[in-house]
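Sample pair:
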Amino acid sequence: MKKVIPMTGDITQPGLGLSPKDRDRLCREVSIVFHAAATIKFNENLKVALQTNVMGTQEIVYLCKEMPQIVALVYVSTAYSNCSLKEIDEKVYPPPHDPRRLTECVNWMSETDFQSIEPTIIGKWPNTYTYSKALAEHVISENRDILPVAIFRPSIVISTWKEPIPGWIDNMNGPTMGIMGCSMGMIRCGHVDTDKICDIVPVDTVVNALIATAWETSFRGRGEAKVYNFVSGIQQPITWGEYFDICKEYAVRNPPSRAIWYYFVIFCRKKYTYLATSFLLEFIPACLIDLIPFLTTGKHKKVDLYYKSLKFLALVSSFSTQEWTFHDANVRSLLSSLSPQDKDIFYFDLTQLEWKKFLKTYMAGIRFFLLKENESTLPAARKRYRKLHVLHCLFQFGLILFFYRSIQRLCGLLT
C-alpha cells in the first residue's frame, strides 16, 4: 500500500478531472500506463458510453503525450469489440464511424437524442459497450507513431485461478450473474446455445498478460498498435453446456443458504422458445408468490425480480447464443518470449488450466465473496437444499400427473 498513490479524477471530464499538481506528478514520474477505466454496462446510453469509453481514451492519450518517459500505453479493450465479424484477427479494424464526428455531437446532443438514434448508429454491434470499444481502439491506433501503444482484448473475465487466492471475485458481471441466479433457484431458463464456445478467462491471467504486454511494448516502441486477443476458446475450449454442467455439480454440492428453489434450468437456443419457457417457469410462479403480498401491500418483488432477470439475459444473450473464431498468435508469441522464471511468476498459459478444478473454486468464490456465506453454513444449507430437491421432484410429478389426467379427459371428450 505504500507504493500506491491515489488521485482524484474523472475520465468523463476534460483533462481527466486531474488537479494541475497531480497531472504534473504523473507526467514527471510515470512511464507505463494501463488504461482500463470504462463503463461496462451493455445498455449504457450511447452519449455516456462515448463520453467515458471514447472521449476518456482520447484524454488518456493527451496525458501520455505529456509524459517524456512513456514506454508503454496499454489499452484494455474487449475481444468482442468487433463482434459484428465472425472471425477476429489480432489487428485494428476500421472504425464503424469517425470517432471525432461522434464525440463532437456529445457536446450538443442530449442523452434522449442519442437514445433515439442509437439503433441506427450502432448497427450490427449488439450494445453500446462493444461499439464504443471499437471506436476507442481506433483512437489508440491513430496515435501509434507518436506513442508506444498496444491493444489488449480479453474475452469474458471471471474469477481468479490462483492469485490473490483461488476463486476470488468481486462482481456479478457476465455469466457469474446467471450461474448465481441458477444456484439460488431464481433463474429457471436461459437463452443459451449449449454447443457454442464459452470464452471465459481468469482475471489473474488477464493481469499477468497485461503486464507482459507492457514489457514487450516497451521494447517494440512506436510505429505499431499491436493487438493481443487474450481468449481461451482456441487453446482450451469449453462450451456453455459444459460450463453450466460443471457449475451445477458444485452448486448442488455446496448450495447457497438463501436458495429459494432447487437448481433447475432449461436452455433454449431460439429467442421465442426461451420467452415462452420463461413465461411458464418464471413469470407465472412469480405472480403466484406475489399474489398475497400484492393484495395486502401492493408490492410485487418477485415479478420485479423476474423483469430484471429477463432484461439481464436479453443483454447477454448475444454472447451465449453465438461464437467467434479468434486468432491469438501475438499472445502465444508473447508467452514463448518469457523466461521460465517469468512464465511462472506472470503465468497466463491457458493450456495449463483445468476447467473442472477452476470452476470448483469459482463456485466456492461466488458463495463466499458474493453471497457472503462461509463453510460453517454448509451443513444447514445442504439440508435445506435436499428438502428443496424433494419439493422440486414432487412438483414435477404433480405436473406430469396433471397433464396425464388432462390428456385422458380430452381423449374421453373426443371419443
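The CA atoms of residues 32 and 192 lie 40 Å apart.
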